[in-house]
Amino acid sequence: MSRISEIASAVENGKVKLIESLVQNALNAGEDASNILSEGMIAAMSVVGAKFQSNDIFVPEMLVSAKTMKKGVETLRPYLTGGIVSKNGKYIIGTVAGDLHDIGKNLVALMIESAGFEVVDLGVDVPAEEFVKAIKANPECRLVGASALLTTTMGALKGTVRAIIDAGCKDQVKIMVGGAPVTQEFADAIGADAYSPDAGSAAVKALELIS
Ligand code: B1M
């Protein structure tokens, strides 16, 4: 089994105690950090999702896989971000109300940070008013990102964008949205300024939006 397959298997099977050493060994052996992330850990989470959908695993197993991935990402973190210099201002990010998924949001935050932004992370299950409050509390902030992972929280994403517009914050910030069920069409329909399918393209988009 290759090192990357071992990492994928550890995430799939929730081997929390093993992941740190597997990731560190792979890095020491010269594996690329982005490959470890995308081909090892993110790919494994897709398998976990498929197993959940087919009732082969349940929420507790999904949770332990998520915990394993988070620990793996922490080990990778210094290799993904390099020497960060915050020169592009603040970026407010959160997962919308009713939604507890944060792995994707955290990866977006990590890539945004690598692109030179200071990330203000509001966490998960963030009510629309909290996004508005954070924008008003950070008048120099020009970008806000909202993540939704459930089809049932796409309404909250729409509500978040609406609340930011209704609060008169659109002159201050541009709104970026993303998450597995979100599409460019949906982003356009709810009045977001930008949609990105993954963390890497979110960072590129953020830089475009402030240039
Ligand atoms: Co949940 N879950 N989950 N879950 N979970 C999904 C999303 C699901 C697709 C699984 C499935 O059925 N196949 C399904 C949603 C179905 C749907 O809505 N159509 C689902 C469900 C049903 C649920 C519960 C309702 C289960 C239940 O309780 N019966 C429940 C809901 C809880 C809630 O939020 N209220 C639930 C709970 C959980 C756990 C807590 C157990 C755990 C989350 C732990 C955590 O995040 N701390 C969990 C997990 C782990 C998953 C899966 C398996 C993995 C999610 C993940 O981390 N993916 C997921 C299945 C799947 O995704 N295949 C699933 C890896 C991550 C890197 O990808 O988050 O898509 P992703 O992020 C990407 C892009 O989407 C994008 O960039 C990221 C990185 O490249 N992106 C952005 C994300 N945000 C962005 C923002 C941007 C731009 C890009 O701009 C601002």
Number of strands: 5
What are the distinct ligands in this entry? CO-5-methoxybenzimidazolylcobamide
Q: Span from first to last CA?
A: 44 Å
β-sheet strand percentage? 5-15%
Overall pLDDT metric:
94
What do these coordinates show?
The protein is an alpha/beta fold and 211 residues long. It has helices spanning 3-12, 16-28, 33-53, 59-81, 103-114, 128-137, 154-166, 184-190, 199-210; strands spanning 90-95, 118-121, 143-147, 174-178, 194-195. Helix 5 links the parallel strand 1 and strand 2. The chain starts with a helix and ends with a helix. The structure holds CO-5-methoxybenzimidazolylcobamide. CO-5-methoxybenzimidazolylcobamide (B1M) is lined by residues 42, 45-46, 48-49, 52-53, 59, 62-63, 66, 98-105, 107-108, 145-147, 149-152, 176-181, 196, 198-199, 202.
